[in-house]
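Weekly sync, protein design subgroup
Attendees: M.S., D.O., the rotation student, P.L. (late)

Item 1: inverse folding check
M.S. brought a backbone from last month's batch and wanted to see whether the design step gives back something sensible before we order anything. D.O. pointed out we never logged the input encoding, so this time it goes straight into the notes. Structure tokens as presented (301 positions):
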């Protein structure tokens, strides 16, 4: 098969479109012909060696965590999937024409959802949903979603609204218009100290950004409230012992992925697609993704 092969840590130029041995499904695994993958920050951080302490690469190796495609072969002991099924998942080594996925982390693409579009959803929608779940937010409470214009942020906003919460979208000033489309009740500019100061006390913050902004926002959480983050927790968290601080790592959950994907299919949640590029242009795709932006970049195999 053709795949994006990495021989050493480095910039986007280390991503090479080459022949690579076809994977073979073992017990409990499924072989999928990949229709598309998507570019996530974890992909280019891993390529650059920034995750080698906890998520190292073996060279030559493959990268990629999002995948949507068609089942080609079923390994021993797998039930619930058939050859020809359209599936998607958070997996490993997905920048490739073929991918072996554990059946336990595989889900069927909801009918009516485009297979290519489905590749944009696994990591960001599961992460956003689980980030909001970590806040424990309930109906009638108020939560601030930091980075609400991003795809994890959008997924968190949607989840909070499904729970009946009042949601404030926290974005940069330049993203204010974009943030009006994410379904929040109000918008605040997190790079405006006056705006932050005027925030009411919050039941929870769901943070996808981190940094100095986090240190300012933890001060706005009520005693007994929760500050949940998918990035580093606020460095001054110890100064707020009455606030529960949670570092969230996303884990695959089939029901969550299916629920979020159905919301996308039905137009209740929008995960914008920025570009669709051939798998062979993964280097260009990652270089573009590292510039930042709202739309997901898809790699079409």
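Designed sequence read out in the meeting:
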């Amino acid at each position: 098969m053709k795949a994006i092969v990495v021989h050493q840590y480095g910039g986007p130029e280390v991503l090479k479109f080459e022949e690579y041995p076809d994977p073979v499904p073992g017990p409990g695994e499924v072989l999928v012909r990949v229709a598309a993958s998507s570019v996530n920050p974890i992909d280019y951080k891993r390529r650059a060696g920034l995750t080698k302490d906890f998520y190292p690469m073996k060279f030559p190796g493959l990268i990629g965590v999002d995948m949507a495609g068609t089942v080609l072969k079923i390994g021993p002991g797998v039930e619930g999937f058939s050859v020809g099924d359209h599936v998607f998942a958070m997996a490993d080594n997905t920048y490739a024409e073929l991918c072996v996925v554990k059946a336990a982390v595989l889900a069927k693409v909801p009918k009516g959802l485009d297979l290519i579009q489905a590749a944009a959803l696994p990591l960001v929608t599961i992460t956003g949903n689980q980030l909001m779940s970590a806040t424990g937010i309930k109906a009638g409470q108020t939560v601030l979603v930091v980075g609400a214009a991003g795809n994890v942020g959008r997924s968190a906003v949607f989840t909070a609204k499904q729970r009946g919460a009042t949601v404030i979208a926290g974005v940069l000033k330049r993203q204010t218009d974009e943030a009006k489309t994410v379904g929040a009740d109000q918008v605040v500019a997190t790079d405006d100290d006056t705006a932050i100061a005027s925030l009411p006390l919050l039941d929870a913050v769901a943070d996808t950004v981190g940094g100095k902004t986090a240190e300012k926002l933890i001060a706005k959480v009520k005693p007994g409230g929760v500050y949940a983050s998918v990035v580093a927790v606020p460095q001054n968290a110890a100064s707020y012992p009455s606030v529960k601080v949670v570092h969230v790592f996303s884990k695959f959950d089939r029901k969550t992925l299916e629920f979020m994907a159905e919301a996308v299919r039905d137009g209740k949640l929008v995960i914008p697609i920025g570009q669709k590029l051939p798998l062979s242009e993964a280097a260009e795709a990652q270089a573009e993704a590292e510039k930042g932006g709202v739309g997901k970049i898809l790699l079409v195999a």
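Discussion: The chain has a mean pLDDT of 97. The chain is about 25% helix and 30% strand.
Action: P.L. to compare against the previous round before Friday.
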